[in-house]
Fold this sequence. Notes:
Strand order of the largest sheet: 4-5-8-6-7
Largest sheet: 5 strands, antiparallel
Number of helices: 13
Mean pLDDT: 96
Bound molecules: iron/sulfur cluster
Strand content: 15-25%
Low-confidence stretches: none
CATH class of the domain at 225-325: Alpha Beta
Amino acid sequence: MKPLEYVCPRTVAEAAAAHAAHPEARYLGGGTNLVDLMRLGVERPELLVDITRLPLDRIEELPDGGLRIGATVRNSDLAAHPLVRARRAVLSQAVLSGASGQLRNVATTAGNLLQRTRCGYFHDLGRACNKRVPGSGCAALEGVNRDHAVLGHSAHCVATHPSDLAVALAALDAVVELAGPGGGRGVPATEFHRLPGDRPERDTVIEPGELITGVLLPPLPDGTVTRYRKARERASHAFALASVAAVVQLEDGAVRHVAVAFGGLAHRPWRARRTEAALLGTAPTAESVARAVEAELAEAVPLRDNAYKVTLARDLARDVLGALTAP
Ligand code: SF4
């Protein structure tokens, strides 16, 4: 049996210090992903830093109309919060499209962002995986890669990130707040998760000892509409094959603000900047929306088994953007 230490700090500074002092430490929130990975032997921490007693469990409206979501806010509470449902439906819809009610009752905001890929080879200790064992290879390249990435992948890893919440946050221009031994910093949600490159073992830009303390959502202008749609193998309890989060504001029929992010296609939420640039300032039609979506998905490089994802993402994005830009 592998010895495991457990601490339950009461302040953010204590938590960050405990984590920073131990190279094999992991933060424990709801544990819905970490504990599964520990059972499989994929994660083998020597220290668990329980952050559930930290004062990070609130959703606050900010004076400018923005919203601050604490790191340990449970997914169910986030999805049900009146200010989220009223002004940022995309966030509520994304959270409710993931996992089960029971899991959402314990899973936290930070834990949702930090969950690991569901690549089957990552979970199989008998198969090569650069993310689990750097330098060991990638079994998915020649294996079954139906669920894997079509954008931003590398010769070292073709995994996708499984979070729905992260996709909505990318479209909302959220900022992930981090605290660490060296102080605090904010990282745009679009840059929080990494592309795999030659370091696929690193999912995010978090440095050792850093702790997510919350997520900051900027204010949205009046009239902004949002939506999340997800395609999956079955109606519930399944990860995205492809998903899209969109945030749109129209003024006099023209697009004044648009943000689009894809999920299920890459190692991180994929912000569709080409689509946005093509739509901004225009009065959209079904044809121009289709062209704008195509401009982004032309970048896709499907693997042997997953060209269907491009079609799926194209249809989802056209549908969502068509609905949000309809007169
Ligand atoms: Fe591992 Fe990434 Fe390859 Fe999956 S795709 S086997 S996570 S290196």
